[in-house]
Amino acid sequence: MTATDPPPYDAIVLAGGAARRLGGADKPAVRVGGRPLLDRVLAACAGARRTVVVAAPRPTSRPVRWTREDPPGGGPVAALHAGLRHTTAARAVVLSADLPFLEEATVERLLSALHAAGTDGALLTDADGRDQPLVAAYRTTALRHALAALAGGNSDDNSDNSDNSHDSGNSHDSDDNDNGSGLTGLPLRRLTAALNLTRVPDPLASFDCDTWDDIADARARIREHGHVLDEWISAVKDELGIDLDVDTRVLLDLARDAAHGVARPAAPLTTFLVGYAAAQAKGGPEAVAEAAHKAAALALRWAEEANPSPGAAADGPGPDGPGPDGPGPDRPGPGTTPASGPGR
């Protein structure tokens, strides 16, 4: 880490709730914008050094560490305690698994607010101004002290420091000696009341899905809040397992040029070939942009041939008429007789 790099953070995602208001459905697996809610949240905290998910293990879009509160279903405070035991960074982002509009920029904003304010934590507030402690960044030392106090001083204040690097794959911890049983059933407000918190208003990112009406609202808003293309690109990248930032405007301009200059079916085929060329070159966004510019220039040349402007073609008519093989001032056209005169 260089002097300009932000300090590392870990992420704790609580995904083991009963979802009673959804009729007991598997809420983390419910899809919004084609992606499971859990995967959407994991994408938002992709910058975490370690991500701990408190829930039963399941397939996810990226590797995480799994753990459970003991007993399972012990509530958010017990789940937070279970996840915190497997963090090593000085800061932790704590998230619920039902945040369809959470983005990486929001996580970075919370971490920046935490750093700037010097408080124990920074959390989002919703459209009604209510605290959302499961969309927050905390100092892990402050969390451990508060949890220990809630548990009557019996909480193990030591984290699992056996691995300071990113997990290379999904792992599952089932041998927690300190199960935080004194925290079972406690509401989150008991924990946050003991912390000095900074509040960051964000009605959209704090929107969570507790009911099927919320799910329907989120699915509709995905297509209304002005970022449908970004949502679609993110979903496709997750589905294909790629992590590549591409300037979509370049590709959209290319598709337009290919459709107008060549033929409408050329648009998707050309963008596919550009992506394939970039992959063959083993390049990143720069390779995509370079290939797109080449293909766009080719499409424009095709368009110019179909609709030539006067004097545009090198072998076309010049200012005095047709080119060297056609009629001009000194060359008779078809069916004409050369004029007679001196020197003829």
From TrEMBL:
<dbReference type="InterPro" id="IPR025877">
    <property type="entry name" value="MobA-like_NTP_Trfase"/>
</dbReference>
<feature type="compositionally biased region" description="Basic and acidic residues">
    <location>
        <begin position="163"/>
        <end position="174"/>
    </location>
</feature>
<feature type="domain" description="DUF6457">
    <location>
        <begin position="225"/>
        <end position="306"/>
    </location>
</feature>
<dbReference type="GO" id="GO:0005525">
    <property type="term" value="F:GTP binding"/>
</dbReference>
<dbReference type="Pfam" id="PF12804">
    <property type="entry name" value="NTP_transf_3"/>
</dbReference>
<dbReference type="GO" id="GO:0006777">
    <property type="term" value="P:Mo-molybdopterin cofactor biosynthetic process"/>
</dbReference>
<dbReference type="InterPro" id="IPR029044">
    <property type="entry name" value="Nucleotide-diphossugar_trans"/>
</dbReference>
<keyword id="KW-0479">Metal-binding</keyword>
<feature type="compositionally biased region" description="Pro residues">
    <location>
        <begin position="319"/>
        <end position="332"/>
    </location>
</feature>
<keyword id="KW-0460">Magnesium</keyword>
<keyword id="KW-0963">Cytoplasm</keyword>
<feature type="domain" description="MobA-like NTP transferase">
    <location>
        <begin position="11"/>
        <end position="152"/>
    </location>
</feature>
<dbReference type="GO" id="GO:0016779">
    <property type="term" value="F:nucleotidyltransferase activity"/>
</dbReference>
<keyword id="KW-0547">Nucleotide-binding</keyword>
<protein>
    <submittedName>
        <fullName>NTP transferase domain-containing protein</fullName>
    </submittedName>
</protein>
<keyword id="KW-0808">Transferase</keyword>
<feature type="region of interest" description="Disordered">
    <location>
        <begin position="302"/>
        <end position="344"/>
    </location>
</feature>
<dbReference type="InterPro" id="IPR045598">
    <property type="entry name" value="DUF6457"/>
</dbReference>
<keyword id="KW-0501">Molybdenum cofactor biosynthesis</keyword>
<feature type="compositionally biased region" description="Low complexity">
    <location>
        <begin position="333"/>
        <end position="344"/>
    </location>
</feature>
<feature type="region of interest" description="Disordered">
    <location>
        <begin position="151"/>
        <end position="183"/>
    </location>
</feature>
<dbReference type="InterPro" id="IPR013482">
    <property type="entry name" value="Molybde_CF_guanTrfase"/>
</dbReference>
<dbReference type="Pfam" id="PF20058">
    <property type="entry name" value="DUF6457"/>
</dbReference>
<keyword id="KW-0342">GTP-binding</keyword>
<dbReference type="GO" id="GO:0046872">
    <property type="term" value="F:metal ion binding"/>
</dbReference>
